[in-house]
Amino acid sequence: MKRIHRLRRQFVLLAAIVTTALAFGAQAELRLPAVFSDHMVLQQGKALPVWGWADNGEVVTVEFRGQKVSAMARGGKWSVKLRSLKAGGADVLTVATKTKKIQFSDVLVGEVWVCSGQSNMEWPMSKSFEPTNDIAAATNKFIRVFLVPKSKLDAPTNDVVGRWELCSPASIESFSAVGYYFGRSLQKSRGVPVGLIGTYWGGTPAEAWTRNEFLAANPRYKTELLDAFALAWKEYETGLAAYEKEKEAAKQTGLAFNKKSPREPWKPSVLYNGMIAPLIPYAIQGAIWYQGESNARSAEQAIQYRALFPDMIRNWRQDWAQGDFTFLCVQLAPYRAFKPQPDESDWAILREAQLRATQVLPTVGMAVITDIGDEKNIHPAKKEPVGERLALAARHIAYGEKIEFSGPVYRSMKVKGGKVILRFDQVGKGLEARDGELKGFAICGEDKKFVWAKAEILPDNTVAVSSPEVAKPVAVRYGWADFPVVNLWSKNGLPATPFRTDSFAPAAVLQK
Q: Model's pTM, two decimal places?
């Protein structure tokens, strides 16, 4: 029944979009996409696209802060660009033809960020850790939010239903907690208006947020994602038919039926089409991204994320055509049962893929949250430090502030007298171990069998790792687990990212 209702809602939404498109195709009366509304925030310091629909040949004039720019509608569409603006407001944006005028009031200019990903980004303020006081104190006229409705589409759409809202207890309660804490911290530190565009959906893989043509152009993705989805969909339909038949038989005989319906596979690109495409080319400063759990279901998937994640970023940057805008991700939190011995981990591979994205692409950063996790809950409730660490990264990467924005990051290793000496970047004021001796380090010899190791911080901010079980060490791993228990930090109060010095293939991959 739930599935029927979900399909019905999707059909109604799609029908509304199609009906609207047909109506405006027949007579494209002056209109702008929903991302332009009262209370919106426009991006400072960049050329600002303003676009929409109008009758062919109609001249559309946009006025804002003394600027006046016109364009003629062609094919029912028009587009202009305003010159870059300084932060401030509130002002009125006017868009007019000879026969119609639209005015947007209370328009601010400041910093605009897209907040996207899956359930940990979607996780609302109301369910975050001790949210009552933060929600009650959320009124801030210099923060605005825009929520993109959930929408799966087979082709890109050009609009959504929504509007900008003032930051208040009512608007923030159901908005992304990570997004809100990020925006609150950024607004306070930068002293300018902040606009947050929430576009997220729990349980979603990265390929669903990537454009189809971008995926199809890569032979690997065509095989591993697009072709694989076609096969998975056939299996799903077969399984669903069998499930429905069995369910009906149980109903007819009066027997209890407790089986779960088969899980519908995510089709690549459907969320890009419905929840990213309609935002483009609205001017933004950058994006924050909390996702990856759905791409860590196997070692193969996690390894694939090494390429898929940076390629998704490239796709967004290419389509937005605003250069290499800042992209900040959240490294996966500890989750699943703690293992008493070092072992392989799909989640560790995916965390490594997230780290690699910061190393292979410009202006990409990451918030490490090894101290925020729950063995039994994939949704750790403490979102405030997540948002604040993202804001630190934004302040350094996007705005050039000379601050410590990252915890220690592994740089290199050398073997010396039966010990492995590790060097790190981003050590800040120095390395420290929280809660006693260093933990979370494992070491191996040529047999590639890892054992727990003793680790100590040396005066030159290197870390020496050793074990009496490994006379000739070859590699070291730190926090290499689904649920890493680790305590290496910088004295600036930021945790080190998990890492490994080796590149050994997981046994699950080697066995195939």
A: 0.92
Burial group, residue 200, by CB count within 10 angstroms (0-12, 13-18, 19+)? buried
Burial label for 476, CB within 10 Å (0-12, 13-18, 19+), is: buried
For the domain made up of 2-107, give the CATH fold.
Immunoglobulin-like (2.60.40)
Q: What are the residues facing 115 on neighbouring strands?
A: 198, 288
Task: Report pLDDT digits (tens) over 147-190.
Answer: 999 999 999 999 999 999 999 999 999 999 999 999 999 999 99
Query: Using alpha carbons only, how large is the chain's radius of gyration in Å?
Result: 25
pLDDT digits (tens, 9 = 90+) for 183-209: 999 999 999 999 999 999 999 999 999
Beta strands of 98-246 (E only): which ranges?
101-117, 140-147, 164-167, 194-200
| Distance separating alpha carbons of residues 124 and 203, to the nearest angstrom | 15
The distance in angstroms from the start CA to the end CA of the chain is 39
Length of the chain: 512
Q: What angle do CA 141, 143, 144 make, to 5 degrees?
A: 100
- Which among 253, 288, 310 has a CA at the least distance from the CA of 122? 288
The residues facing 364 across adjacent strands are 327
Bond prior to 281 in cis (omega within 30° of 0) = yes
Structure tokens at 306: 């090494």
CATH superfamily, domain 109-216+266-397, is SGNH hydrolase (3.40.50.1110)
Q: H helices of 50-165, where?
A: 119-122, 132-136
Comparing CA positions, the residue from 294, 109, 121 lying closest to residue 199 is 121
SS3 per residue for 3-58: HHHHHHHHHHHHHHHHHHHHHHHHCCCCECCCCCCCCCEEECCCCEEEEEECCCCC
User: Domain limits of the chain?
Assistant: 2-107, 109-216+266-397, 409-510
The angle subtended at Cα 72 by Cα 69 and Cα 73, nearest 5°, is 125
Query: Do residues 500 and 420 make contact, with C-beta atoms less than 8 angstroms apart?
Result: no
